[in-house]
Design brief:
323 residues; alpha/beta; Arc Repressor Mutant, subunit A; D-Maltodextrin-Binding Protein, domain 2; 3 domains; six-stranded mixed beta sheet; three-stranded antiparallel beta sheet; 9 helices; rod-shaped; WH_DNA-bd_sf; DNA-binding; transcription regulation; LysR_subst-bd; DNA-binding transcription factor activity
């Protein structure tokens, strides 16, 4: 069986107008061409679709039956064409987020995208660090927001801010009532760290962070999920060390407490592959940079402790405007 889309167009138009001359004018074709297309379609199905005499053109019973199928085929073709055409102009981006990105920045980004780019599709995936690195390199994720720089070949990293570190402790802990705690307190408590299969960097980071103070951390391993790690902290299993803007978020059973000592801050930013210069990526980068300063500034104001608070979040103004 061999038939063409043009033949279906001719059939459907003729079945509506029931006039070869009008059909030819409607499709900007000659009348002999319409006749040829209909004849070819009838030969393909080995059945007569129209009865024609000097007075009128009418559908046969087979023509009436075939009309619904022909319309369904044309509707499917039109939908496929619209979909494929839209791929060139579609604004769709797949992203994954670090804790600050997810809890502090993502709401503002979603609001701005909805207001300024209502057709923008943002697909969010909750991934471990190891999954993030693998998928962005494979092109399965377009952007990683509020993460540290990663050892991925061809990765572009746009710094957004540096944040001081704080501790999340159980409300039941004696440390919860203190305005600030000393790093030396970490000699006597466990520290929650992501499992190595989720993030190869977390435990080495904690060891390097505390080594200058002569402390070897007692590690309690946990899945790399902010909610799970803070639940561990709430249960008294250990202390979670995170960045200061997370203190603006509410998690049951834990309290955010700054450190007395000055610890190395953590640099966070937006990661994407250098080769990814799609319009969706450009828009997302611009929106993120515009949202970052306001959202992070609000989180600092909400958690500021004038006497013993951590250093303020430091932004990178040169990166707020993205091309």
């Amino acid at each position: 069986m061999d038939f063409r889309i043009r033949q279906l167009q001719c059939f459907l138009t003729l079945s509506d107008l029931l006039n070869y001359g009008k059909t030819a004018r409607a499709l900007y074709m000659s009348q002999p061409t319409i006749s040829f297309q209909i004849k070819s379609l009838e030969e393909a199905f080995n059945i007569k679709l129209f009865e024609r005499d000097r007075q009128q053109v009418r559908l046969t019973d087979a023509g009436y039956a075939f009309r619904e199928y022909a319309q369904n085929i044309m509707d499917t073709v039109d939908a496929a064409q619209e979909c494929l055409t839209g791929l060139h102009t579609r604004l769709r981006l797949r992203a994954s987020f670090g804790p600050v990105g997810q809890f502090v920045l993502l709401p503002a980004v979603i609001r701005m995208l909805a207001a300024q780019y209502p057709n923008f599709e943002l697909d969010v995936a909750e991934l471990t660090t190891e999954q993030q690195m693998a998928r962005i390199a494979e092109g399965k994720i377009d952007a990683l927001l509020m993460v540290g720089a990663m050892p991925v070949t061809g990765l572009r990293f746009d710094p957004i801010c540096t944040e001081p570190l704080i501790a999340f402790v159980s409300c039941q802990s004696h440390l919860a009532s203190q305005r600030s705690i000393s790093v030396q307190e970490l000699r006597n408590v466990s520290i929650i760290a992501s499992r190595e299969k989720d993030c190869r960097f977390h435990k080495p980071f904690l060891h390097n962070l505390l080594a200058p103070f002569g402390i070897t951390p007692r590690i309690v391993e946990s899945p790399q999920s902010c909610a799970v790690q803070f639940a561990y902290a709430a249960s008294g299993e250990g202390i979670a060390i995170t960045t200061s803007s997370m203190a603006a978020c509410t998690f049951p059973g834990v309290v955010a407490v700054p450190f007395k000592e000055s610890l190395p801050p953590m640099q966070l930013g937006l990661a994407s592959m250098q080769a990814n210069e799609t319009r969706a990526m450009t828009i997302f980068r611009k929106v993120v940079m515009e949202c970052a300063e306001a959202a992070l500034e609000r989180s600092v104001q909400a958690t500021s402790r004038p006497q013993h608070g951590p250093e303020a979040v430091k932004h990178f103004p040169n990166h707020r405007e993205a091309s």
